[in-house]
Amino acid sequence: MNSHYLSLSFIITLFFFSTILPPSHCNVYEPFVKCSRPFECGSIKNISYPFWGGDRSAYCGRKSFKLECHNDEYPVYRFKELEFRVLNITRSSMTIARLDLWDTPCSRNLLNTTVNYTEFNYALNFHNLTLYYGCPPSVNRSFQNWFSCSSETGNANNGFLVDNETFLSTKSQVLENCNTTIKVPISRTALISESEFVDQALQNALNQGFDVQYRALPIICGGCVESGGKCGSNSTYPFVCHCHDGEQPYLCLRNGMHALSLFTFLY
């Protein structure tokens, strides 16, 4: 029989089996399997790219989006010296709150709040709250917006909060005698008025957290998912598409496309 027809018969058979028969699970690309698992912790469920952590390896997300699970209760996001409790995650943003200020404004980590500005932007609904610590007793008598923190020596460490920059400009001379100042983002819906019970209102505002939006996530992730892949990264590129049979830059190639490529190569 003509060798040309034998080759053609072989290619047609290969094409049939590669497109009709289901793929073997014995040879599935490992990153595809691992990145199929969502990150889940507490009430936060079904989290995928760009996040990784837990059962999701680093190549399942972007480097700066690592999450940790605290006692199976809630996710924690770390940036430099600060830890943030993750309250909610959507496709475009997440809501976080400083863990050291959770349930108490009396932190030992008196640092300004910063986030990774390479990966995140503050959402439009954020507002900076200014907290003063180690204020003299005269502050208590002058204003309503004060709170108290007990020091290690048992003495009261007076604090004061400002969520109105106009107020700050008129009272700065009194507050300049406080020892430390930090800024903490809160949601605008949690603004505190002087008529409120300050301790409770302050804690509610801190526990509500604030929103950060992801910057410049690849829109091609949707195409990768539609082609049957899992979005991820590698040591060289911040985005790759992990497919059933290997890694691709953007999309998973369908079996028919592989067979067609082989046909073109042989002829």
Automatic annotation (TrEMBL):
Segments forming a coiled coil: none
Catalytic activity: L-seryl-[protein] + ATP = O-phospho-L-seryl-[protein] + ADP + H(+); L-threonyl-[protein] + ATP = O-phospho-L-threonyl-[protein] + ADP + H(+)
Glycoprotein as UniProt keyword: yes
Domain of life: Eukaryota
Major localization listed first in the record, in broad terms: membrane
Name of protein: non-specific serine/threonine protein kinase
Alphabetized InterPro entries for the sequence: WAK_assoc_C, WAK_GUB
Topology term for the membrane: Single-pass membrane protein
Span of domain Wall-associated receptor kinase C-terminal: 149-246
Entry keywords, A to Z: Glycoprotein, Signal
MF terms (GO), sorted A to Z: polysaccharide binding; protein serine/threonine kinase activity
Keyword flag Signal: yes
The organism of origin for this protein: Castanea mollissima (Chinese chestnut)
Main EC class the enzyme belongs to: transferase
Localization: Membrane
Signal peptide extent: 1-26
Domain Wall-associated receptor kinase galacturonan-binding: 35-96
Pfam family, one: WAK_assoc
Annotated EC: 2.7.11.1
One Gene Ontology cellular component: membrane
